[in-house]
Amino acid sequence: MPNSIGTSLDERFGDEPRTCTAGSGAFAHYELDPAIYDEMFHGDGSPRETCRRLGSALARASPEDLAALQDGVARRFLHEGITFTVLGRAEMSEHIIPIDCIPRVLSAEEWDHVDRGLRQRITALNMFLEDIYHEGRSLRDGVVPAELVLGCPQYRVQMRGLKVPHGAYVSICGTDVVRTRDGFAVLEDNLRVPSGVSYMLACRTAMKHAYPRLYRAHEVREIAGYPADLYATLASLGSWGRTPRVAVLTPGRYNSAYYEHAFLAGEMGAMLVEGRDLVVHDAVLYVRTVAGLKRIDVVYRRIDDDFLDPVTFREDSVLGVAGLFEAYRAGNVVIANAPGTGVADDKAVYAFVPGIIRYFLDEEPILANVETHLCREPDGLAYTIDNIEDLVVKEVGGSGGYGMLVGSHASAAEREEFLARLRADPTNYISQPVLALSRAGCFVDGRLEPRHVDLRPFVLRGRDEIRIAPGGLCRVALRKGTLVVNSSQGGGCKDLWILRGDAEGAR
Amino acid sequence: MMLARAAADFYWMGRYLERAEQTARLLDHQLNRLVDTPAAELAHSWRVLYGAVGMAPPSVPEEADEAEAFLIADAYTLAGALVEDETRPHSIISCWSQARENAKQLRPWLPVPVWTSLNRGFLWMRESDFAAAWAMGPPVLVRDAIDRLRLLGGVADAMMPRDDAWRFLELGRIVERLQHQTVLLDTWDTLGPPDGTSTSAWWGDLLRVCGAYELYCRSRSMVVRREAALAFLVRNPELPRSLRFAANRTGELLSDIDPAGARYPLTPPHRMALHLAAAVEMDPHGEETPGEGHGAAGSDSFDALLGDSRTLHDMIMAAYVAYPVEEGLPT
Do B119 and A277 touch (CB under 8 A)? Predict the structure, then answer.
């Protein structure tokens, strides 16, 4: 089904240019908002250079063609079981992640800017982490308030003075990047167990299947090498003298990202293990196989620090393995990401990342931060309380769209309830302006309309190399008007096409 | 290198898929007889079917005895319980669902087409409307289910490398088959043909259920006798559903899983597999003694085989999955 529809759609565009304009033809319902950057169209309704060919093809396709194509893409996800689990419900339920069949397109120049900014950011953050667990120069020099770091729940005293191989505290990072009329900005750094890369790859596979000719014509940069890059990154973190044995440590199949854990293990040829599969004996980590216990060299952990090792961290954890940290401390196993990295993606510490970049690299940040008010500071708290209707207020340790309030979308009662929590524990909150996230073309309810999107590129930092897949998980707020892109809250995903060269292929 | 827990999941996945097909196969045979079989005979064969899968009949008064229960219940209810009742462990949907749960844990090891085939089959089964399918003809849905299960078996056969993952999947299938066939033969023999049914027809039906009728007719006779049928189903090495075939195949798989186990000393499960093969060979049901009537060789030997096959299962788990840490450490 998707094949025939994809080919059919592909065949509709030829060499003859076809006009596509926001507000007319196939894009009749595509309304532009001058306050919001549109990824597909200029303010006057004409297509951006990168989207000209895509827009032309979509203009030729009938709504029925697009509906069939959308259905084929969604069905592919269903059959392949590309799922996530919704948390916080009485019954853990498995959902197919919604996918939109219209790709978002970025030019090589736009991507180059993001790429350079991400490299700069992960370099600085790793230096910051090494510093706060050793000399603490940046804390003494006031780059980040010491009490903010040392009092952060994600700061792990067990990591103090511990030598992390090659200074690679954060080896896998998923940075949330948004675009507004002012350009790209980083919304948050996910330095603990970032997820979503499998959906990025699944979206790409589905799009290649759906638009084989259109995809080829666009000369899109390839992302299929990510699992190999991930393996190379993990393997580079030690000196083994043999092929290292890598394991992906998952909390199990009830975890919201279990599909991803299984996918990455399969693609890397690594073992997908749970804590109950592992044993530490004489500070060496072993996995239980049918042929006895075998040594594990690298653990790509997808569980939080708290649950890694009940001896060192939370003693009630049944997800980790007793003695793992001892094996790590002895240098007998590498854990990626290292324990304690969460302190650098705390939402309060985030506000200081531009200063961290300047301090450690002596460079200006390439990617901007979003203006952030720390409620731990009297001015920040007062500003937040006075302007809550225009702000997004977030718990410093929250994620997944939970523990936050979008002031303009909340009722008066919800705001009051949130304010009470904020006043009771201001150190636990930050606030940011409601961003006018850029919008990209989506096929929703049988027509082409713009929806808000963000972008999560995945950055890998090994022994001496930083690798970034040219693309990322493009999340989309499929509900009209909403800004929340999290899949647990009605969001979906779409493919992101980074064009080669100067977008010549798209013209 | 096979993760122990994954080996257990492959093993259980194989068991559940085999169990689903067994239930479907027995049910298909029964549903095809609805058209022209007297009610009393049908009730008797429902009793055999439920006995073979170890289930109690649904929706019958508590005071009814077992034989009455199957006379009272209607075919739609009896079949429905075996197809779509997720609370019954031997129903087709339950087995498929359990196999899928195992497969979810095995995504890194399962080729995508195998997972997709299993998942699509399950989604189809879950979304099927049993009542509507019944209206189309009682066996239609069950036959489609069998086709999908066999398609999955074919995809797995074509796509999976012959490594330990495959071997544990096969081992699960074959251990399940060994246990199921033992119970089926025992139940069929113990309950015997209903009044008014020819012995030849009764034992011929058993051969059909086991996919052995044509082979039996070609190699033996169209007149089917109890001892000959049981001998065929117990000892014929070429018949995939014979006990001997299952016992031999178990030994082969265990040799391949643990090559060192093929030499002295053998691992406990491998020793048990050889013991089972010998026990099947010596089973008195395999002895054709002209003139002996129904039940001459009773349930004892089947009970012993079933007990040994359950011990085999425990030994497989103990040897490859739940062994003590000190035994697993590298030497």
Answer: no
Provide CB contacts within 8 A for A92, sequence distance 6+: A85, A86, A254
Q: What is the pLDDT of residues A201-239, one digit of tens each?
A: 999 999 998 888 889 989 999 999 999 999 999 999 988
Q: Which residue of A has its CA nearest to B330?
A: A293
Q: Which of B7, B109, B115 sits opposite A290 (nearest CB)?
A: B7
Selected for mutation to probe chain A from B13, B98, B104, B107 (highest A CB count within 10 Å) is B107
Q: Which residue of B has its CA nearest to A282?
A: B329
> CB B245: neighbour CB atoms within 10 A?
21
Residues of A in contact with B120 (CB under 8 A): 79
Residues forming CATH 3.30.1490.270 domain(s) in chain A: 371-433
CB B103 within 8 A of CB B118: yes
- The number of CA neighbours under 13 Å toward the Cβ of A234 is 29
ipTM: 0.83
The residue assigned the tokens 């009537």 is B293
What are the residues facing A294 on neighbouring strands? A287
What are the residues of chain A with a beta carbon less than 8 Å away from any beta carbon of chain B?
78-81, 253, 258-259, 262-263, 265-266, 270-274, 276-277, 279, 281, 286-295
Which CATH number is A111-185+226-361's, of 3.40.50.2000, 3.40.50.2300, 3.40.50.11290, 3.60.15.10?
3.40.50.11290
Rounded Cα distance, B184 and B178, in Å = 10
Q: What is the pTM of this model?
A: 0.87
Domain A371-433 has CATH 3.20.20.70: no
DSSP per-residue string spanning A108-140: HHHHHHHHHHHHHHHHHHHHHHHHHTTT-HHHH
Q: How far is CA A177 from CA A59, A322, A412, A486, B216, in A?
A: 29, 37, 30, 14, 70
C-alpha distance from residue A357 to each of A144, A350, A352 (Å): 12, 11, 9
One digit per residue, pLDDT tens: chain B, 331 residues?
Answer: 899 999 999 999 999 999 999 999 999 999 998 888 888 888 899 999 999 998 887 766 666 666 666 766 788 889 999 999 999 989 999 999 999 999 999 999 999 999 999 999 999 999 999 999 998 888 999 999 999 999 999 999 999 999 999 999 999 999 999 999 999 999 999 999 988 888 899 999 999 999 999 999 998 888 889 999 999 999 999 999 999 999 999 999 999 987 665 566 788 999 999 999 999 988 877 565 554 444 456 678 899 999 999 999 999 999 999 998 888 888 7
In the DSSP assignment, the letter for residue A456 is B
Say how many CB pairs under 8 Å bridge A and B.
Answer: 88
Return the HEC string of A294-355. EECCEEEECCCHHHCCCCCCCCCCCCCCCCHHHHHHCCCCEEECCCCHHHHHCHHHHCCHHH
Interchain pair B108, A271: CB under 8 A:
yes
Q: Is residue B198 domain-shared with residue B246, that is, in the same domain?
A: yes
Closest approach of A502 to chain B, Cα-based (Å):
36
- Number of structural domains (chain B) is 2
